[in-house]
Amino acid sequence: MRYRSKMRTAVAALLLLTGPALAAEPIVGRASVTDGDTVVIRGTRIRLHGIDAPESAQLCQDVAGKSYRCGQVAALALADRIGEASISCEPRDTDQYGRTVAVCRKGDEDLNAWMVSQGYATAYQRYSRDYVEAETTARALKRGLWAGTFDPPSDWRRAKRASGVETRPEREKPLAPTQAACAIKGNISRKGDKIYHLPGTRDYDRTVIDTGSGERMFCSEDEAKAAGWRAARG
Fold it and tell me: pTM for the whole thing?
């Protein structure tokens, strides 16, 4: 009996010692954004846990019923939120495409939660309910996607696959915000002025677009001007 007791004690001690070592270490570094729910850190592809963002080629409809590239808007929003900062991603799982599924943070901020709370992504309830409350808030405030209408990203992918269009993430390339086709940010100031910011200008990186308040992305300066926006000064 003493022998068994000593064995149980030894096993328990071994588990305590080895448990933390068996946990996956956070992946830390500068991130390249592939789309609104996928980043790459030092060659490791990371799928943001518990959220689903529109695909890069996906179109949604804004509050006025006009189509816009919601997948690209989501990717740009995530890229802008991360900026030049180093982020930390805590692995949770590995998906069918070999990507690490993780909760990623910039400092103390949960980037997964931020994407959902701002309406750039939905809670991926098929795999997790962690961000259902954030989605409920975004929906109530009509932020981002919820300002207009859209197909849930999973439904959009399913429809594309049914029509023979490849949607695997291996085909996606990291997004460079300054090279994106629709990278001009249409911002509305506190005074109600409609101002657009070009990539590389002074306030571009810190300008966050809230589509729920009427702000939007533009593909060209002519498009922005035609919609009533003016160029930022400075």
Answer: 0.65
